[in-house]
Amino acid sequence: MKTQNYYPRVSDKQLSSLLESSGAVLIEGAKWCGKTQSSLQVAKSVIFMQDPDEGPGYLAAADTKPSLLLEGETPLLIDEWQMAPVIWDAVRFAVDKRNLMGQFILTGSVTPNDNKIAHSGTGRIARLKMRPMSLYESKESNGQISLKNLFSGNRDIAAKGNLSIEQIAKAICRGGWPSAVVSKTNSTQIVKNYINSVINIDVNQADNIDKDPEKVRLLLQSLARNISTMATAKTIMDDIRANHSIISDKTLNGYLNVLRRIFVIEDIIAWQPSLRSKTAIRTTNKRQFVDPSIATAVMQTNEKEILKDFETFGFLFESLCTRDIRIYTQALDGDVFHYRDKSELEADLIIKLFDGRWAAIEVKLGNKQIEDAAKNLIKLSQKVNVEKMNPPSFLMVITGGNVAYKRPDGVLVVPISCLKD
């Protein structure tokens, strides 16, 4: 069921691999990030739960005999399965009964409440997270520098990127939404439509509880102003109150949880390595959206405006790099963290692979900051207790420049427009 004009995704290989090793695969992620189109490249049949003509019939079947929805050539795609949560247990049972791999693909843009499904699906249903497109997927990074190769020891790099600062600003505001990437006009309007849907519809449908649209908007704006920082819940709350809106701790936590469940926000967890000396490591998460365009949309700014505010531009650039590094790292079976200790020594991103290999990254938009960033990365690497964990596979400064090279001290300098998995 392949579709035309499809931009290949980094997660395509992961999906194929999971279908070969699991009875079903759940693809979850933000609305409009490309889950359905990616699934259609391998699905042999499909059920669209949101189909205005067929949807009511599908919901009725789910209430009476959910197994009817599982008939069709495999892999069968069930799009937005969470509209009928009983499908989860039906799929799990069918996988057990058939004892075959690659039977179903489920896509969902909201994590349902645990009390709506009886079983976790462990061992039967594999999970795959999708995010909006990276610069490599949108064909704006040439991919000359591969994270996989770097972790394999190939660190004598030399490459040249092709994105100007203005093009990076445009990519931030447009975002990695597939429809915006392929659109030649109104690309920023697409993310604005997405935000309006989040504020007025999605946050309510996630748990069927009405929320104050103005408070949701103020919360998103506060998160945008604090993007790529370790802003506490109190900071967010005070920011909202400064805009003449009262919000309680319970309401704030409830709204944040819903935004996580619909994959709008995706904070970075603090990394806690084994260190040579006792140093207090800060455990606060770093605030991030799943895509930097969410921040620019809710702040009602554009590429021309952020070019005038280099400090804000720097935080947004870090958000862009975070999105891309997360996509590339997931393909390598790893996770992304951040590090900061009581001495304020930090690394914007820590890549930690499942096998124990790791790398530290600083994100710097301008070339003037590279020297200090490299020194900080080296200092962090010297703090790590290599008797208890591996030394870093590499240290990297990601920049908005155009030349990739290896410094005499071994630190890699790589433009975001050169990276891929």
Name the descriptors.
421 residues; alpha/beta; Rossmann fold; eight-stranded mixed beta sheet; 16% strand; globular
Give an overview of the whole structure.
The protein is α/β, with parallel strands linked by helices. The protein has helices spanning 11-21, 35-40, 55-64, 86-98, 147-151, 165-174, 178-182, 187-205, 213-225, 233-242, 249-261, 292-298, 303-306, 310-331, 370-383, and strands at 24-29, 45-48, 76-79, 104-108, 125-130, 145-146, 159-160, 269-270, 334-340, 346-353, 358-364, 394-399, 403-406, 412-415, 419-420. The strands form three sheets. The chain has an eight-stranded mixed sheet, with helices on both faces. Helix 9 packs across helix 10.
Q: Would you tell me the structural class of the helices and strands?
A: alpha/beta
User: What's the β-strand tally?
Assistant: 15
Q: Cα distance, first to last residue?
A: 26 Å
| Helicity level | 25-40%
Radius of gyration: 22 Å
Number of domains: 2
Low-confidence spans: none
Rough outline: globular
What is the percentage of strand-forming residues?
15-25%
Major sheet details = 8 strands, mixed
The count of helical stretches stands at 15
Mean pLDDT: 93
What spatial order of strands do you see in the largest sheet?
7-13-14-12-11-10-9-8
- Helix and strand pattern: HEHEHEHEEEHEHHHHHHEHHHEEEHEEEE
